[in-house]
Amino acid sequence: MDDETAGTRTPDIHVVAGNAKARRLARGLTVAEVAERGAISAAWVRELEAAHASWNRASLTRVAVALDTSVARLASPDFDAFEDGASTGASAARRPEPGVTEMPEEECFARLRLHSVGRVSQGATDEPFVLPVNYALDGGDIVFRTEPGTLPASVHGRVAFEVDELVRSARLGWSVLVTGNAEAVTDDGERRRLEDTRLASWAGGDRPLWIRIRPDKVTGRRILPHGAPPPSSPSADSDLGARDEG
């Protein structure tokens, strides 16, 4: 769906809401800054991000301009919040082929903040394992909660933690890999503070044990969509899953 045809179909407001919030966070903007840039009210921007706002084409256009994108891209299920911008018309006539580019650490952490489920792996065991966990960021650390005596509770020492998002229909995606040291949170004051984050385990239950991963290396790669500029960073491996040793 491009800008010339976007007005012929009604955007899914839930898609627009999620994309608008992700784009705002990716751009490092507050709700107030988006409102000021788009000459709209901050209250309406908050309502839009919650998918509760009344809207029309003009109001969505103001939001898109404030977020340096287009209504068509905000309405697209394949929208990448970190793309440099949406090219349309004559400027999009010649599009480079997709490629893989390395993401700076700042973008990696921004993507970690936008997501809530990752995979933790501990290879230095008799039987290596990879487990999905829902997580939160605590400063620059990754924290998750689990039940004592379970496999996630055994996570300690050197670990890898990975988060990704794939759009198979568009052959787009990104992946962030964190390596660092994991430890159980034993300080009562620290546990109480983490409880205030209200991170609830998807598996349910009390899950009183908190595990903290302190990163010492954060790397990421993403596949460039059609229309994106060539990467300015050093060339990346053609395999999204390839990682530097370290």
UniProtKB/TrEMBL annotation:
Domain of life: Bacteria
One Pfam family hit: Pyridox_ox_2
Annotated InterPro entries: Cro/C1-type_HTH, Lambda_DNA-bd_dom_sf, Pyridox_Oxase-rel, Split_barrel_FMN-bd
Domain HTH cro/C1-type: 21-74
Spans annotated as Disordered: 221-246
UniProt protein name: Pyridoxamine 5'-phosphate oxidase family protein
Species of provenance: Yinghuangia aomiensis
Lineage, top ranks: Bacteria, Bacillati, Actinomycetota, Actinomycetes, Kitasatosporales
